[in-house]
Design a protein that fits this description.
The chain is mainly alpha-helical. The chain has 16 helices and no strands. It has a domain of about 220 residues.
Length: about 325
Amino acid sequence: MFESLAGWLVYDGMGLDPSSRLGAALHFFVMDVTKIFVMLVAIIYVMGLLRALLSPERVREYVRNRPDWQARGMAVTLGAVTPFCSCSSVPLFIGFVEAGIPLGVTFSFLIASPMINEVAAVILVGILGWKLAALYVASGLLVAWVGGIVMQWFKPERWVEGYVWKIHMGQVSIPEQDTTLRGRHDYAIAEVREIVGRIWSWVLIGIGVGALFHGFVPETWVSEHLASGNWFDVPSAVVLGIPLYSNATGIIPVAEAMLTKGVAIGTTLALMMSVAALSLPEMLILRKVIKWQGLALFVAVLAVAFILVGWGFNALASI
C-alpha cells in the first residue's frame, strides 16, 4: 500500500523516472514517511493504552530491593519497553541511586532504554523483517545485560558526581491514574502527541538521509567503504554513529538504505546501536551525573560491545 502510494505520487503525479536517482530517492522518502508515521501513531497509541500506569518513579520502585540478577533482568526489560530517552537519564539515574539500586543495574537500564523500545522493534519488523528485528532486540538486551556487569566490575561509584549522593528524593507519591477506558484513551493520545512531537524531526532527518543514501550514493562507493568485507568496516560504523543524534526509530530508514546497498548486517546493526546509545548529546547529558573517567569507561564498554556484535553477525552471515 505504502509503496503503491509513493509510486503514484512520485512517478505518476510528479512524472519522475523510476530509474533516476532523484526518483528513487523521493520514492524511498515518501514511502517511508507514510509507513513509519502511520505505524508510529498506531503503535504508540496501543502501547499507551497498556502503559497508562507506568512512570519513571514506578519503574524505579519495580527494581528496588531485588536480588542483583533479578533487578538487572527487570531493569533491562523495563528499559526496552519504556519510552524514556536520553533526556530522562539524569532524573532516572538520581532516582535509582537514591533508591539504593546497584550502579551496574542502573547502567544496564541506561543502555537498554534509548537503544531498544517496542515502537522501534515493531517498525523494524514492518520495514526490515522479523529476523533483523529479533537480532537487533536480542543483541541490545545482551549488550545491556553484559555492559552493566562490566561497568560494575570497575566500581563506578567513585565516578558518580558528589552532589548525586547528597540528594534525598524521599518517597515519591505516585498519583492514581484513571484506569477507565476513557482515561487510558486520553493517556494514549497524550503519549502519541508527546513522543511523536519529540522525535518527528529526527525521524524525518533519518528518512531523508536514508533516501539520499538510497538514491544518490553509488553502490561502488558503498562496496568500497562500508561493504568491503574488511575487519575495520564495523569499527568505522560505530565511530560514524557517535556524532549522529537520533533514536532507534529514526535510524531505521538509514539501516534500510544501507542493507539495500549491500552493507553487511553486522555492520548495519553496529551503526544502529551506536547512533541510539552512544550519541554525543546523550553523553553530554550523562556527564552531569558521571565524571569523565566513568563516562569514558561507559563509552568504551559500549563501543567494544557493538564492535563484537557487528563482527559476530558478519561472521555468521558469511557461513
